[in-house]
């Protein structure tokens, strides 16, 4: 396995770490994808060679009429021309020095029988020229540390690797993760997966030291066993969070017409994911929130949760959500309760969930955070702030207290925040997130993400 | 497994894609899956003798390549407590099968007689099944029987082969798992023996990939230490050998 693993890494790596890229179908027309892709490529430091028949210069960069006229060898070619031209480009791509091509172009098997013939021809031509291809019918690939080879935005820099079977959904996700400041390491939209598909991406991301978590959006697959094995291999190395599209019967039909592959029985798929040791995300939003928690925080040793709040109500809601999902509302050590009762006012609760009451600020949050993290009955900590401004407090003091508590605690355990109060809570929320403590608006979303990391930890610590 | 292969060959030669109950039980036995004591008989006298050897009460079922759904053909008689009841049941089953054949316009083969089985005590009803998914190949399903499966669709799956840990987890995934742990003062069920049945079925499918569908339904799980019994087993095979 190790030999072929290394081979695969070498095969796929130029897609993400090229030195020189040629773009076939570069365009000055802002209505063409070849224009968007070129703009994105030119924003990077990599050398770019636009190929177009119609002009000497595109977007101020020297353009070439074909691959044979570019002065230096390239190691990645991005193709955005009509489907019928793609297959014939393969020998030229090989001559230009590249063994990797991303086929953005649509009009292949996703459109019907005629397109399927073109796709078959493309596959054969690529094999003959020894070229690995991503696509066709895809958004492209990006490496947030190096270049953006897509017609969507560059993701925020980070550690989550994302492979998507749906191009539009993948591209859209980059917008939403950017607005939430969730960072990605690498992104690949695999489109019709004529050659490189989810399986190869999983094997690559598993070996990629720049990616700590893998997110996958999967609709349907043809080679189920290969997918299962790739997921299992990847999940044994790093968390793999999967969102499955096409779960309902109606969704299943939409999938078939969408990518032309089978949407399998949901129950078998769910069982397969668990067997592979993967984490499931119920929605698109949770897919990246779960990934973020995996990326930011250590794995818990168990599912016992400690909760701190400054209102009873929010603590109760969080407790309900956590226990509904299967987290254990822990009982603190006697020592912890005693020390808390020394510092908190008499009306405060020193039992789980802790209520420091509204007058509790920076000092109370710091002490409670530190005590709970040091308590051996606590595996992870949920810190809630429902009223960030009370009688002259600053908006960020609860967050600052939490951070101080985390730094003073001698043990590394996952910490998650829930900051309510909308915009008033936002400065505190931002402070936590900047310090890699995921902070949510809703206790039940926080509980769901915490449950998922606890389950992953259980599965992978006691195999 | 040679035993299973021989049975499948016979079935296909007779134009069947299902195996007869005693054949299914022979295969189960070969894989160490616990089943109630059983035998076959072609005459009423033989049925009585064999029933005595098994011990009353017993169950009689029609054994014929022409009858897949035995109850529909009036081919099942349960809880037979003595010689007289067995003799009467045998005659009725044969008559019912003949009438069933007339209705369907077929000549029902009666040469195999009946299947006789010990009438198992009621336990917690479980269904263990195998399906062949078009994408993932063989997968094992487990669920609690009755309304849990039919109404609540409370079942879980794992791809074959799977580990003992997978088998335990798939049971824990069931909403009805608490019933196996024992609720309302009931003693806990023998989950270990159920897990062994699941693992044995997994092995059976691995070694006989031509099986495309299998049902151990009902499977009775008794209280801890008292084991599990697969009371009824149905095996369907593909017409040509196919593996995942």
Structural class of chain A: alpha/beta
Our measurement of the CA-to-CA distance between the termini of chain A, rounded to an integer number of angstroms, reads: 21 Å
Quickly count the helices of chain B: 8
Strand percentage of chain B lies at 25-35%
Topology of this protein?
The complex is a heterodimer of chains A (463) and B (244).
Chain A: H1 2-16, E1 20-24, H2 33-42, E2 47-51, E3 57-58, E4 61-62, E5 76-79, H3 83-95, E6 100-103, H4 113-128, E7 132-134, E8 140-143, E9 147-150, E10 157-164, H5 167-179, E11 184-189, H6 198-207, E12 213-218, H7 224-235, E13 240-244, H8 249-259, H9 266-275, E14 279-280, H10 284-296, E15 304-309, H11 312-325, E16 328-329, H12 334-343, E17 354-355, H13 362-374, E18 380-385, H14 397-408, E19 415-419, H15 422-434, E20 439-440, H16 443-461
Chain B: H1 2-13, H2 21-30, E1 38-41, H3 44-54, E2 58-62, E3 76-80, H4 83-104, E4 114-118, E5 124-133, E6 137-144, H5 147-150, E7 155-159, H6 164-172, H7 177-181, H8 191-207, E8 211-221, E9 228-230, E10 233-237
Antiparallel strand pairs in B: 1-4, 2-3, 2-4, 5-6, 5-8, 6-7, 8-9, 8-10
Helix pairs in contact in B: 3-4
Structure description:
- The complex is a heterodimer of chains A (463) and B (244).
- Chain A is of the alpha/beta class and 463 residues long.
- Chain A contains 16 helices and 20 strands.
- In chain A, the strands form four sheets. Chain A has a seven-stranded mixed β-sheet with strand order 9-8-11-10-12-13-14, sandwiched between helices.
- In chain A, helix 1 crosses helix 6 and helix 3 runs parallel beside helix 4.
- In chain B, strands 5, 6, 7, 8, 9 and 10 form a six-stranded antiparallel β-sheet that branches. In chain B, strands 1-4-2-3 form a four-stranded antiparallel β-sheet, with helices on both faces.
- The radius of gyration of chain B is 18 Å and the shape is globular.
- The model of chain B has no long low-confidence stretch (mean pLDDT 90).
- Chain B has eight helices and ten strands.
- Helices cover 37% and strands 25% of the residues of chain B.
- The longest helix of chain B has 22 residues.
- With 244 residues, chain B is of the alpha+beta class.
